[in-house]
């Protein structure tokens, strides 16, 4: 009989099994524990194939084919539809299993489609990319960014009404974004480092992106302290509540009341358990140290892509393409950060997760697309600002990470380097 082996996963959580569980498989295609409704987890490949083919046959033969543009759209939608179905059947679900592994397989499939679309656009001329966008939305022809609009004017004229006027939908989006980031990173030092460095990034690139120009009170008070600070605080509080919660799952079939069944169905969209993270500890290696510093810099580049894409290709912030990209990146980055965390903190994980790999490719391709199609814009770049920004990014990220290491070494001497095992679902 084989002796049970104990392994350390996700920053120190002890898992016991009869066979050695590969760390990469655990983050790349995590199995579902304690299945209560077997119907939703049994393979239905033949049924899915039959329904898919029937749907395509019906829509292909009954729809109106008089419009060429509608025909192209229908063909693209059909390709996307079948690609996502293949994603459900073949792609890994990553480190998450709630609400269902199929959801995360669709997310992975959508990220691959987005990467392929970016690679296609990368090999097109600037005018061709614009024509593709105008074909998607003809209204973009009439939209142009007002480069003459003034920002950060009359900064000395401060009043409550003026400050309150800046608390708009974008401020709420800013707050919610940092709440989401806090839930992903779960580390105060790293979050504040990213927050402060982003303000430095805005200053460095304000000569290229005029909307980065802000009054000092808008940048320091509204952005750093209110939106970023409250978002980080709320996100970490949510993490603390989820960490202290007792995760005991009961099958929906064992619940008698209708209210209880509805509550259990809603809870299916919450984590199966909560794993505390520990990015750094006093004994971390230099590779782990630089990998985390690299993450902080890459996060800044990913944020910059958002603003350069909509500026170079002239899209309003409220355009569906901009919002769709933000939503897609948001759901992609969640499993990517978890996979990167395991890769950095678990010495037995020798490969980065596939979703993290795809996200890295997306980030680089977006940057190349911006540089290639924004030659006129980047030709106006003040290289001194960019070089100083890059040096500051590297120094601040390394300094912040090193400061966190010193904090754990001298101010948390009684804590173990590995967190306690989270409560498992029954």
Automatic annotation (TrEMBL):
The biological process GO terms on file are: phosphatidylserine biosynthetic process
Instruction: Supply the InterPro entries for this chain.
Output: PSS
Where is it located?
A: Endoplasmic reticulum membrane
Q: Name the membrane topology term.
A: Multi-pass membrane protein
What EC number(s) has UniProt assigned to this enzyme?
Answer: 2.7.8.29
* Sorted UniProt keywords: Endoplasmic reticulum, Lipid biosynthesis, Lipid metabolism, Membrane, Phospholipid biosynthesis, Phospholipid metabolism, Transferase, Transmembrane, Transmembrane helix
Pathway assignment reads: Lipid metabolism; Phospholipid metabolism; phosphatidylserine biosynthesis
GO CC terms, sorted: endoplasmic reticulum membrane
Annotated Gene Ontology MF terms? L-serine-phosphatidylethanolamine phosphatidyltransferase activity
Give TM segment ranges.
Answer: 39-60, 72-91, 103-123, 386-407
This chain's protein is named Phosphatidylserine synthase
Q: Give the Pfam families listed for this entry.
A: PSS
Q: Which family does it belong to?
A: Belongs to the phosphatidyl serine synthase family.
Top-level taxonomic group: Eukaryota
State the protein's purpose.
Catalyzes a base-exchange reaction in which the polar head group of phosphatidylethanolamine (PE) is replaced by L-serine.
Q: Which reaction does it catalyse?
A: a 1,2-diacyl-sn-glycero-3-phosphoethanolamine + L-serine = a 1,2-diacyl-sn-glycero-3-phospho-L-serine + ethanolamine
């Amino acid at each position: 009989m084989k002796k049970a082996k104990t392994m350390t996963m996700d920053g120190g959580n002890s898992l016991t099994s009869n066979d050695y569980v590969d760390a990469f498989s655990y983050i790349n295609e995590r199995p579902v524990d304690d299945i209560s409704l077997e119907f939703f987890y049994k393979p239905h490949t033949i049924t899915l194939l039959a329904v898919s083919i029937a749907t395509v046959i019906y829509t292909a033969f009954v729809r109106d084919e008089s419009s060429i543009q509608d025909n192209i759209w229908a063909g693209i939608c059909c390709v996307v539809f079948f690609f996502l179905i293949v994603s459900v059947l073949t792609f890994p679900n990553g480190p998450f299993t709630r609400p269902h592994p199929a959801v995360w397989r669709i997310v992975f499939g959508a990220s691959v489609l987005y990467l392929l679309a970016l690679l296609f656009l990368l090999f097109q001329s600037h005018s061709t990319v614009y024509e593709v966008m105008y074909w998607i939305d003809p209204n973009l022809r009439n939209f142009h960014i007002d480069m003459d609009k003034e920002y950060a004017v009359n900064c000395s004229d401060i009043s409550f009404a003026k400050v309150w006027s800046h608390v708009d939908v974008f401020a709420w989006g800013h707050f919610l974004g940092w709440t989401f980031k806090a839930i992903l990173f779960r580390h105060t030092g790293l979050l504040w480092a990213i927050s402060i460095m982003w303000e430095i990034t805005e200053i460095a690139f304000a000569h290229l992106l005029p909307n980065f120009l802000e009054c000092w009170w808008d940048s320091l008070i509204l952005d750093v302290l209110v939106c970023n600070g409250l978002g980080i605080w709320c996100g970490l509080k949510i993490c603390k509540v989820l960490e202290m919660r007792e995760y005991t799952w009961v099958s929906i079939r064992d619940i008698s009341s209708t209210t209880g069944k509805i509550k259990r169905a809603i809870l299916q969209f919450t984590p199966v358990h909560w794993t505390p993270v520990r990015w750094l500890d006093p004994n971390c290696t230099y590779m782990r140290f630089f990998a985390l510093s690299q993450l902080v810099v890459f996060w800044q580049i990913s944020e910059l892509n958002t603003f350069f894409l909509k500026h170079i290709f002239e899209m309003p912030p409220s355009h569906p393409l901009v919002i769709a990209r933000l939503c897609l990146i948001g759901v992609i980055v969640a499993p990517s950060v978890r996979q990167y965390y395991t890769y950095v903190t678990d010495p037995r994980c020798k490969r980065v997760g596939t979703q993290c790999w795809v996200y890295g490719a997306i980030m680089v391709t977006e940057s190349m697309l911006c540089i290639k199609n924004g030659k006129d814009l980047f030709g106006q770049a003040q290289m001194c600002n960019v070089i100083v920004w890059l040096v500051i990014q590297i120094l601040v990220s390394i300094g912040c990470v090193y400061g966190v290491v010193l904090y754990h070494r001298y101010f948390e001497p009684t804590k173990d380097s590995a967190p306690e095992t989270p409560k498992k679902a029954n």
